Structure prediction request, 253 residues.
Amino acid sequence: MTFEHPAPERLPLLRQLWKTAFGDTDEFLDAFFRTGFSPERSRCAVENDSLAGMLYWFDVRCRGQKMAYIYAVATHPGHRGKGVCRGLMTDIQALLQHQGYAGVLLVPQSEGLRKMYASFGYRDCTTVSETFCAAGAAPVPVHSIDREEYARLRRQWLPEGGVVQEGENLTFLETQAAFYSGTDFLLAAQSTPEGALFGTELLGNAGEAPGILRALGYPQGTFRTPGQKAPFAMFLPLIQDAQQPSYFGLAFD
Prediction:
């Protein structure tokens, strides 16, 4: 088995594996490959010229150190049980270390995956809280902002040790979510298929959530905020003095 950056002719196979593994729509995949994808930030596992697995990453920073947020790790159903995922993770660790990254972050989507990544050396590093609420009686002031303004304000609102996610991170997120600011909060949010609001990240005064819902015209919603209710991101240091993040907010789930 070999590991490589994907050649252009493999892109249709990458899309098909993504749909098989995660069930996302063509619209979602179009957005990712248009705004978030780069061959230099992608790796494939190849066995006998067959695509066996894939992963992608986004460049992020924490405490001045360059790090990678690994995303959409998948093994082809026909190649499961062959150590494809472990091989990909070993490969990307060595590659990123060679390229000067200080550490690697990822967000497991299940407890089983969390245990698997723990076996690869990753450790829980951040937590979040998710709060469900109904719209309040009165709206609060909410202003729509662009991603550049969101990036600027987010640096101010991030907790100490928070991971800075800009560039292609926000360009991709903008295809799924809108950005808002208020007197004492900053919000990235998107509509759910059920007609509710999902606050991908709410920084600042979480008590404003009911008023935000009223202002944006949603009857109810869920907001992800800094907090300690549930484990979230995992971290693997790649250098001796890697600074472990204490907050990671923008998971593209």
Notes: The mean pLDDT is 96. DSSP finds seven helices and 14 strands in the chain.
